[in-house]
Amino acid sequence: xxxxxxxxxxxxxxxxxxxxxxxxxxxxxxxxxxxxxxxxxxxxxxxxxxxxxxxxxxxxxxxxxxxxxxxxxxxxxxxxxxxxxxxxxxxxxxxxxxxxxxxxxxxxxxxxxxxxxxxxxxxxxxxxxxxxxxxxxxxxxxxxxxxxxxxxxxxxxxxxxxxxxxxxxxxxxxxxxxxxxxxxxxxxxxxxxxxxxxxxxxxxxxxxxxxxxxxxxxxxxxxxxxxxxxxxxxxxxxxxxxxxxxxxxxxxxxxxxxxxxxxxxxxxxxxxxxxxxxxxxxxxxxxxxxxxxxxxxxxxxxxxxxxxxx
Length: 310
Prior knowledge:
By secondary structure, the chain is of the alpha/beta class.
């Protein structure tokens, strides 16, 4: 049987601008196709920080100069980023697979992810987003109930929360495609954050950390492996000392000890480690791997990378 792998692509795998992204996804598609040839059934997710920031800035700048229009909510910006990133990934991967005589379809699912409106993170926003504002514009945003942070030079920007994902709304559609042997791009950028209101889903002014969403996707698709792509071949600890240590194969318990010692940066590496621990802890036989794109295939084959097991 094929090994079911949820792979979370980071910023380097996508680039930032439109031209950069088209080049980056073609390179990433080669690695993804290598994994397919090695016997992996891929479920793909990805980051979107530069892209959603660009969209949010562009849409709100447009509304600023065209008063007949309103700014785009964060949920809409997240949906737009999923659409155009998924479009590039699925086309680049389809092309690479066909070059290798592999005809497996690749589809992007516009994915909503449920969050808790009472999540403690909602009251402590951490993600800076969007265009620079004057003090007057910032005050208007605060009057709407939005959070604003002041940066150097007296400029202001929106800051939004990063709640934990509770449930993937479109998981049945994702699993149906996976069960049919197809490849799926889903939960891009952590998914579109939504809150339940009776039978309605209301977009939340938030950004879900994509690593936690990747872990939830791996859990709800019953994946064998959560493969998180980052900048380095290994996760390092003691990085502020003269003797940093690269982690190879570690257990959930060992990872927990490193977390307690504050070995991982809160914004970058801690979500990757915590998502890995949560995923692996729920079922025997699972593993999580953290490495860079260049070593993804070797890591799946057990040759490198930081591997977390029970």
